[in-house]
Every structure is written in structure tokens, then in C-alpha cells.
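Meet my pick.
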Amino acid sequence: MKVLFPNGASAHLEKSVADGLIAGGICVAAPDAPGTPKPQSEPACRVTWTLTSGSSGVPMIRGECAACGLTAFGSGRAGAKQVHLWHRGRKETPPQTLIAKVFALPVESAWTQSGGVQPFESLQSSGDPWRDYQTVVNGMKRPADPPPGPVAQAMSGQKDIDT
């Protein structure tokens, strides 16, 4: 960091040393030379809320902070009422005007929201990549779980275990 001393001399110092001298009043920070590129500032750390529609046409409220990399979204009317994001120790919710826009849209089809073709946005990851892949391949139906073993069958009363 470049600093100026009261006698007119200037010097390039390590930032921590320069900050200490500036805080002590021994020198001042030198202004940047004209035409010097300024360091790129960090993105503002704040949550921005947007209203979009997903691939299925269901309205989605999405909140994100570009600086922190946090994202939250809720689809449909139920999602608009419930979506929130914990950011910097505070619970952030979308503005009421954005929620009002979702409720001003026509009501979603009960068939789409309850058991028909589920919107892709509602598919939640199970943590098992193969099972998630099979879910998408099988038309949003989870692959069948393996049959319970003999211990589970005995505990549920389906089968007696010979001891």
C-alpha cells in the first residue's frame, strides 16, 4: 500500500504496517494514480427475491445471495407462503408484494399439485445419485425399495424366526 509522510516522501508498505501508521497519524494513504484500475469490489451481500415460472409453468419465488451462494425457492401458493432463507443470522422472507403477485395468478391445477405430473422443481434429491437418476428415468416414480430382511419381517410380525 502506498502512503505519504508529512515531509512529502512516499513509500510502499505492507497493508498491515500501513494501516497501523495511518491509524497512529504518522502518514496518510496515497491517492491512486490517474488511470489505475480499481480493484473489483465484492458483490453486495444481500438477498434478492425474484418471481419466475419453472419449466412446468408453476410460479416460483426464488431468493438468493450472490456473495454467500445461498439460494431458496418455493413453488406455487404453498411455497410462496413458506419460503424463507437464513442469511447472516436473520430469517429473510420475500416481500409481501411478491407474494401478492403469486396469489393474483390463477389457481394451479389441483391435479398437477397432488398426484398427476409433478413439476420437476418439486423433485428433491435423496442423496443417492443412482436412485435420483432412476427416479427421473422412471417418470418421477421412485424405484421400489428392496424387500425387508428376516429381522425386519420378524419385528413387524410378518414372519417368525427360528432360534
Observations:
- The chain has two domains: 1-31, 48-137.
- The chain has a mean pLDDT of 77.
- Residues 27 and 148 are 76 Å apart (CA to CA).
- The helical segments are 15-23, 76-82, 96-104, 110-114, 129-137, 150-155.
